[in-house]
Amino acid sequence: MNINVEMFLQTLPIMGKGMLYIFIVTLVIILSIIVLNKVSGNKDNNKDNNKDNNKDNNKDNNTDTNTDN
Amino acid sequence: MEALYANLLNIQWQQIVMWIIGGLLIYLAIRKNMEPALLLPMGFGAILVNLPLSGAVTQIYDGVAEEGIIDLLFDAGIANELFPLLLFIGIGAMIDFGPLLSNPKLMLFGAAAQFGIFFTLSLAALVGFELKDAASIAIIGAADGPTSIFVANFFKSNYIGPIIVAAYSYMALVPIVQPPVIRLITTKKERLIRMPYEQKEISKLTRILFPIIVTIIVGLVAQRAVALVGFLMFGNLIRECGVLNSLSETAQNVLANLITLLLGITVAAKMQASAFLNPQTLLILALGLVAFIFDTAGGVIFAKIMNLFVKKKVNPMIGAAGISAFPMSARVVHKMGLAEDDQNFLLMHAVGANVSGQIASVIAGGLILSFLG
């Protein structure tokens, strides 16, 4: 085991940049989720989801059967 | 008659040690139920490749190479990153991002809990590993097998065998590693903070657009991680679109199981005694533990700092769930919460943080590849 202080010091900016970039990307994703939730609207979700689920169950049976064939 | 015992004379003590290690992995898989889907094939593979002149790996006979099946599988599935990426489709199909979409702030804990990766990068460099090997070792802290394999393989690390063993072993050891760290850096009062869960309905449109948007955002920032994040989110899109239920089931079950089956035994290609048994392996196992510890600490400390600025306090244990070991870490935090206060149900918050850790670990892996690739 050779202690390499120079290499250690080289990695410190990588540590700083890495954590900063992760947080920046995370914040952008959080903002996207907030915008998505606002735009797609959750008020009438239960009604819409029920309608969609019925439609999709019919579509799904047809699509999967076609794919399997 | 000589043909019966001739190969016995080729046994080396290092190979016997690897048989014991293989046996230990099998024991941990079966008796302790620690990541059996991976530790058992890895353990058995370790025995296979450490038999003298094993035909399971490439051998040279009279100057001619005879390719072994495990080396063949390694070249076909790990050297080109195929297996980890296919596994990610299955993992993406298994994940429900609902708790995260209900409370997007939880993503911050996923980000904070990647601190162990970068801390370990510096520590590995300090103890003498070359930068690319240090990065490969550090990515153990991603607590995510496919990302660890992807990054270690990209850097053509010489230590891919111990790195993968460490990654999967520590993922299985999360219930042992995390609680003492959490207790050390939190007070009882903090652990008692209640977080009532308010169920929010997430629209189908949000669930469908989320994987697409995440892929674009992460892909633009970390180009080399496009395959990783793309396949993870592709699996999730198959799950959430609602019109591909049989593909989603296949991805979650058949595909994930098939790849896991092959991945474990194929990794053993790098567990031959000559590559595995050296002092660096012990150091890598130690650094892997450091990565997990500092991931946990990073998430918890971030939550404590957050509590200085918010009115609605967060139970800091949620920060520990930001590690990507899903769903183990969420369960650990939930159990610890109940142990302190049997009316404090932290599971949904912990799951939200846990799934965000999956995304954050891919971002971290992609950034490491961008910085050092």
Brief rundown of the structure:
The complex is a heterodimer of chains A (69) and B (373). Chain A is mainly alpha-helical and 69 residues long. In chain A, 87% of the residues lie in helices and 0% in strands.
Layout of helices and strands:
The complex is a heterodimer of chains A (69) and B (373).
Chain A: H1 5-40, H2 45-68
Chain B: H1 2-5, H2 13-30, H3 36-49, E1 59-61, E2 64-66, H4 69-78, H5 82-94, H6 98-102, H7 107-112, H8 115-126, H9 131-138, H10 145-154, H11 160-172, H12 174-185, H13 188-191, H14 204-221, H15 226-240, H16 245-267, H17 273-276, H18 279-307, H19 317-320, H20 328-340, H21 347-372
Helix pairs in contact in B: 2-3, 3-16, 4-16, 5-10, 5-15, 5-16, 8-9, 8-18, 9-10, 10-11, 10-21, 11-18, 12-18, 12-20, 14-15, 15-16, 20-21
Describe the protein in words:
- The complex is a heterodimer of chains A (69) and B (373).
- By secondary structure, chain A is mostly helical.
- In chain A, 87% of the residues lie in helices and 0% in strands.
- Chain A has two helices and no strands.
- Chain A has helices spanning 5-40, 45-68.
- Chain A starts with a helix and ends with a helix.
- Mean pLDDT of chain A is 73; it is low at 43-49 and 59-69.
- With 373 residues, chain B is an all-alpha fold.
- Chain B has one domain.
- Chain B is 70% helix and 2% strand.
- Chain B contains 21 helices and two strands.
- Chain B has helices spanning 2-5, 13-30, 36-49, 69-78, 82-94, 98-102, 107-112, 115-126, 131-138, 145-154, 160-172, 174-185, 188-191, 204-221, 226-240, 245-267, 273-276, 279-307, 317-320, 328-340, 347-372, and strands at residues 59-61, 64-66.
- Chain B has a two-stranded antiparallel ribbon.
- In chain B, strand 1 and strand 2 form a beta hairpin.
- In chain B, helix 4 (69-78) crosses helix 16 (245-267).
- The longest helix of chain B is centred in the last third of the chain and has 29 residues, at 279-307.
- Chain B is globular and about 80 Å long.
- At the A-B interface, helix 1 and helix 2 of A face helix 7, helix 8, helix 14, helix 16 and helix 21 of B.
